[in-house]
Amino acid sequence: MSVLLLAGSPSSPSRSTALLDAVADRLARRGVATDALAVRDLPAAALLAADTSHHSVQLAVDRIAKAQAIVVATPVYKAAYSGLLKVFLDLLPQTALRGKAVLPLATGGSPHHMLALDYALRPVLNALGARHILPGVYASDAQVTLTPEGAYQLQVDLFDRLAEAVDTLAAEGLKLGPRPAAFEPVHFSQVRCSV
Ligand SMILES: Cc1cc2nc3c(=O)[nH]c(=O)nc-3n(C[C@H](O)[C@H](O)[C@H](O)COP(=O)(O)O)c2cc1C
After folding, report:
1. Does a structural domain hold residue 195?
2. pLDDT-based confidence at 177, cuts 50/70/90?
3. Disulfide engineering: 113 pairs with which of 18, 29, 108, 122, CB 3.0-4.6 Å?
4. Phi, psi (5° rounding) for residue 131?
5. What's the 172 CA to ligand 1 centre distance in angstroms?
6. Best mutation site among 21, 76, 78 for ligand 1, i.e. most ligand atoms within 8 A of its Cβ?
């Protein structure tokens, strides 16, 4: 069993990748093996040309295929996920995420774009066949601060939210613990909104 940690930020260091690092720590404590793939490390020309015959791209696609679950992290760019992540997702086979659990993570400069995970990324993960897309974790830049040493530090409540997300991933995506009762699907006519 392994979990692939997919980093979709073009930047290094990266706030959204810091969220992935915290998830990796938590998974390691549960004895779950992880594999880290940063899209920014793939050859740009092959990505932009969707060159699936390129060796590095093939290896990356294979790593996706081998993972039981994917944790994907992206910065919010222009109210959606990063273009870098998009070019990678676009070259995956149509059913690349079939049968897999996916935990989406994002960071953004503003808390106002927290729904980008749901309105932008989630439909794409769904189109790729993800079996179970877990509730995502969104953090604003103010919650991921830079230490004088140059490392990113997560606020305590963000750390707790990530820990909870990992526990859910372990229970529902990796079946490591007792599975919480599943929710029945709710018909759209029954959905209530409040502002
Ligand atoms: C080109 C660009 C576009 C951005 N667009 C948004 C945006 O629409 N909404 C937002 O909240 N933050 C936006 N940001 C801020 C980043 O999402 C934020 O700083 C994020 O934490 C960066 O993550 P990273 O360090 O993993 O790349 C943008 C940043 C850049 C560079």
Report:
1. no
2. low
3. 108
4. -75, -45
5. 30
6. 76
Residue nearest to atom 22 of ligand 1 (CA): 75
Mutate to test the pocket of ligand 1, among 5, 14, 17, 77 (most ligand atoms within 8 A of CB): 77
Closest CA to 60 of 122, 8, 134: 8
Per the structure, the count of domains in the chain is 1
DSSP assignments along 164-178, one per residue:
HHHHHIIIIIS--SP
pLDDT in tens, 47-73: 999 999 999 999 999 999 999 999 999
Distance, C-alpha 140 to centroid of its chain = 16
Is the pLDDT at 110 greater than 50, yes or no?
Answer: yes
In a domain, 124, yes or no: yes
Instruction: Assess if residue 22 is contained within a domain.
Output: yes
pLDDT at 83 over 70: yes
How far is CA 167 from each of CA 38, 39, 96, 135, 176, rounded to the nearest angstrom? 23, 26, 24, 12, 9
- For residue 29, give the CATH number of its domain: 3.40.50.360
pLDDT of residue 133: 97
Tell me which residue range forms the domain holding 136: 2-190
Ligand 1 contacts (CB < 6 A) are 9, 11, 14-17, 75-79, 107-110, 113, 141
Instruction: Please report the pLDDT score of residue 131 as a whole number.
Output: 86
